[in-house]
Amino acid sequence: RRPHYPDHTMSDAPRYRFAPSPTGFFHVGGARTALYNWALALRTGGTFVLRIEDTDAERNRPEWTEGIIEALAWIGIHRDDPHFEGPYFQSEYAAQHVEAAQRLVDRGFAYYCDMTADEIDARNKADGTQGYQGWSRDRGLGPGPGRALRFKVPAGTTTVRDRVRGDVEFDNSLIEDFVLLRGNGSPMFLLANVVDDISMGITHVLRAEEHLPNTPKQQMMWEALGHEPPVWAHLPLLVNDQRKKISKRRDKVALEQYRAEGYLPEAMVNYLMTLGWAPHGEEIQPWSQMEADFRLEDVNHSPAFFDLKKLAAFNGEYIRAMSPHQFLEACRPWLLAESAPYPVDRFDEHTFLAMAPVIQPRCSTLADAPGLVDFLFLPDPVLD
Ligand code: GLU
Question: CB of 23 closer than 6 A to ligand 1?
Fold first, then answer.
């Protein structure tokens, strides 16, 4: 089976994309990237393409893709919306990635190299150099087992015009002739990512700042393949209270966990939008307002503090703004959970609704509710 890329040639509307590599959980930074793409796609009448970058064999689990789609839906990005397209799966397009690599060979932008990692090391030691120094550029090797295909990085500089960071200049002499196809013929991630973006008609690439060092290489590939590079926008790092990049090891980064702990999606979305962008007027505001006002030009490039206290405060505000009925519905899974501090068959909705206006101001997450109403539903109220 050879899947086709979408036909995007019928319209000039911008095409944004969100291209997660499945990891088994949905990173809050990914959620912010998705929301910025979504806001722009909606406001400009464009498209939000979801592409699952699953070329790592062990990243090919269907339930992980389901998790991504579910997490997106939770933050309001629904696959049945007319602005949504996909999901596409990168792993299905390997043949097209290899063909694009061949076009680069034909145009003189790529060459084969049979040097092993050990040979490259030895050569570096002997020459006092670092990295791959284009040693096979003029050897005229053809394809073959164990021969990697490398991109011939031209001399000069590459200027990445970034909508968030301004012009970023890279000295090409510091970029080695990077690998496009491995010795076994399989495409490298950077190639696959560019070929898919080109073939899917992507006009805007918004992604995490971590990818900025790859961008000059990718821009060279866009140009070598005969295309204008897209609009680039690298979004600021999210850091913790020690100003360190938030990570799975140190921090709570899984969106699913916030959901499970009783954060409201509207509060989460509102807070995530403020990580690198300042809403006009009040910070707490509905999605429709943020969608109307959000501009890439206003995104800040300095790291954004992922402040758990502030997130909890946002959540508390959203909880207070609910009607008692909305609050009851939102809390229901926690109120009737086995872990509730009272026998759940004693829970009474009318009592809860009557108490809601008193409880709501005291909750920062929905999970706080059962502990605040337990005395109403315990068999023998303990008075102290
Ligand atoms: N798959 C990459 C990631 O999850 C995204 C690359 C991109 O957005 O270009 O980090």
Answer: no
CA gap 178, 166 in Å, rounded: 25
Name every residue whose Cβ is closer than 8 Å to that of residue 72 and which is 6 or more positions away in sequence: 18, 34, 50, 78, 79
CB 104 within 8 A of CB 75: no
Check residue 334 and give its pLDDT.
97
Q: How far apart are CA 225 and CA 296, in angstroms?
A: 27
Which atom of ligand 1 has the smallest separation from the CA of 33?
8
Q: What b/e readout covers 126-154, taking b as 16+ CB neighbours within 10 angstroms?
A: eeeeeebeebbeeeeeeeeeebbbbbebe
Output phi, psi for 254, to 5 deg.
Answer: -85, 120
Residue 125: active-site member: no
Expressed in angstroms and rounded, the spacing between residue 189 Cα and the centre of ligand 1 is 9
Hey, how many other C-beta atoms are within 10 angstroms of the C-beta on 249? Answer: 6
Report, as ranges of residue numbers, the positions in the chain whose pLDDT lies below 50. Answer: none
Residue 301 Cβ < 6 Å to ligand 1: no
Catalytic residue among 217, 245, 248, 252: 248
Token pair 């821009």: residue: 219
* Ligand 1 in reach of 68 Cβ (< 6 A): no
Whether residue 20 has its Cβ less than 6 Å from ligand 1: yes
pTM above 0.85, yes or no: yes
List of residues 6+ apart from 328 with CB closer than 8 A: 335, 349, 352, 353, 356
**Is the CB of 21 inside a 6 Å radius of any atom of ligand 1?**
yes
Determine contact, residues 229/253, Cβ cutoff 8 Å.
Answer: no
Pocket test residue of 23, 26, 53 for ligand 1, highest count of atoms within 8 A of CB = 53
Short-list 208, 344, 337, CA closest to 262: 337
pLDDT of 56: 82
- pLDDT value for 61: 82
Please choose from 16, 21, 89, 162 the residue to mutate so as to test ligand 1's pocket, defined by most ligand atoms within 8 A of CB. Answer: 21
Decide whether any atom of ligand 1 lies within 6 Å of the 22 Cβ: no
- Residues 232-265 have pLDDT tens digits of 999 999 999 999 999 999 999 999 999 999 999 9
- Whole-angstrom distance, CA of residue 73 vs CA of residue 195: 27
